[in-house]
Amino acid sequence: MLIGAMNNPARDVFSEIQWIGEGKLDFVDLTLEPPAAAPWKIDVKRVRAALEEYNLGVVGHTAFYLPFCCTFESIRRAAVEETSRCIELFSKIGAKWMNLHPDRHAPFHPRPFVIEQNLKSIRELLPVARDNGIGLMIENTPGDFNSRQQLAELLDPVPDLGLHLDIGHCNLQVPANTATDIILAYGGRVRHVHIHDNKGGYADLHLLWVRGILNWNLRCGRFNPGGTMERLRWKCSQRTMNCASTAGRFSSGRGRNCVGNCPGRSLCRRNSMFGLVPRLEYRLKESFPP
């Protein structure tokens, strides 16, 4: 598997790539969103050069708040247009996969309307993605697209659509964790995975996977999950990385006490957006081709 990290869209893209590269990671989960990483601010040649300098792969990530099911058709079309721009940019940068977050905000409208609007947007984006050699994948999100049955409403009608599985989200706003059920049903369509922990309920805490209540003994069949870690504090060979204070702020030591084959490697750094550490993600090598 490949290990990478997401850039903080509130910080300079090139400083983020530099940090990820100096951490000896495998790829950047590049999110294109304001304020600092907006699509209209991206210099494709410079980004490609920076990725090549550090021998980094790239996977595409988009803003979680794009209004794909907006009841105002002109706004929905604008979301599709902006996402099409992201597809074209990711193609030029060298990505092979890009994620989408299903939208659920359509006040006073029934669920079938929400589903059809999302499907309409996805179907409009697929030809653009194919023309640019990009595969599209949807991320499970707490609330309305976080169970096998809910995801089936988007995945079953669109066989070419991949799944970006967020294991932590599977534990939020649900009676019971949905990860195993989703993996058993759609493990073959998983293209990218985030792993992080939480304590259930509504708080998306993005904790290290031993800090919350998730049961990691998943019945995954032949699927080999990876994921997103946040608030990194790894134990390695009975030693602990000296990286995190109780406030969650990270020192500049960047894992100097980490020994052995630690998957966290040198991922210690300052707080990112919302006070969280940037995501450490695993990516399956076989997921690269669209």
Write up this protein.
By secondary structure, this protein is of the alpha/beta class. The protein has one domain (2-233, 277-287): Divalent-metal-dependent TIM barrel enzymes (TIM Barrel, Alpha-Beta Barrel). The chain is built from six helices and ten strands. It has a four-stranded mixed sheet with strand order 3-2-1-10, covered by helices on one side. A four-stranded parallel sheet has the order 4-5-6-7. The protein has a two-stranded antiparallel ribbon with strand order 8-9. α3 packs parallel to α4 (111-131). The radius of gyration is 18 Å and the shape is globular.
Work out the helix count.
6
**Beta strands, count:** 10
Which structural class best describes the helix and strand composition? alpha/beta
How far apart, in Å, are the first and last alpha carbons? 17 Å
- What is the helix content? 25-40%
CATH topology: TIM Barrel
Quaternary structure of the protein: single chain
Strand order of the largest sheet: 3-2-1-10
| String of helices and strands | EHEHEHEHEHEHEEEE
Q: How much of the residues is beta strand, in percent?
A: 15-25%
The CATH architecture term is Alpha-Beta Barrel
Count of the domains: 1
Biggest beta sheet summary:
4 strands, mixed
Q: Which superfamily, in CATH terms, is the homologous superfamily? A: Divalent-metal-dependent TIM barrel enzymes
What Rg, in angstroms, do the CA atoms define? 18 Å
